[in-house]
Design a protein that fits this description.
12 helices
């Protein structure tokens, strides 16, 4: 899953949210240098990624893209799934997406010093282009995919994946809807399990 889903699945604990958000850049047991709450978020992120990568529905979505995008297909699906979460946000949260996103950006500002340098450097761009809110529209996703392709020095051709999104829109959305219901339940259970290990 991509940024918006990881943030959403973290619940309301601010340290868990931060940990889940920064986890991709924290390797091995380096997570142990962070406060307990952030450690929980990092561990939750890893559980979510493992569950997602192994899920048959996600693999079905990925397979649709594999011929054109190879090993980048999984990254693309993560981004597309964030689109459907943002687009259908009111189904999953009573807090408007704009308010949720702004609260998250404020959380990053309030905890800036504890964030890894890579994340610190990324935040100004993330906020300036309002990545999380832009996920809600197809043009917004197109821009994100364009930026991702640029980061791969045009090797991934991910910018063209918006065409597959438009062509198979209903199929991707149906797959996301079924999968995310399962992921939501899994994350709630796994977070409780992780928290219990720190007692």
């Amino acid at each position: 899953m991509n940024y918006l889903a990881h943030i959403y699945l973290s619940g309301t604990d601010e340290e868990v949210i931060i940990g889940n958000f920064i986890a991709d850049g924290i390797k091995g047991n380096k997570y142990q240098k962070f406060p307990i709450g952030i450690q929980k978020g990092i561990l939750l992120h890893r559980e979510i990624d493992t569950f997602t990568d192994a899920h048959s529905i996600v693999r079905q979505s990925t397979k649709r893209l594999h011929e054109n995008y190879g090993h980048y297909s999984g990254i693309i699906v993560d981004i597309l799934y964030d689109h459907f979460l943002a687009k259908n946000w009111s189904i999953y949260s009573s807090i408007p997406l704009n308010e949720f996103v702004n609260n998250f950006y404020q959380l990053l500002h309030n905890n800036f010093d504890i964030l890894p340098i890579r994340i610190q450097k990324m935040i100004p761009f993330m906020i300036a282009d309002n990545w999380l809110l832009s996920y809600a529209t197809v043009p917004g996703i197109g821009k994100i995919l364009y930026q991702m392709n640029y980061r791969t020095k045009n090797k991934s051709k991910m910018n063209f994946a918006v065409l597959e999104l438009e062509e198979h829109y209903e199929a991707f959305e149906a797959e996301f809807t079924i999968f995310f219901k399962e992921l939501n339940k899994f994350s709630t259970y796994k977070l409780k399990q992780i928290c219990d290990t720190f007692i």
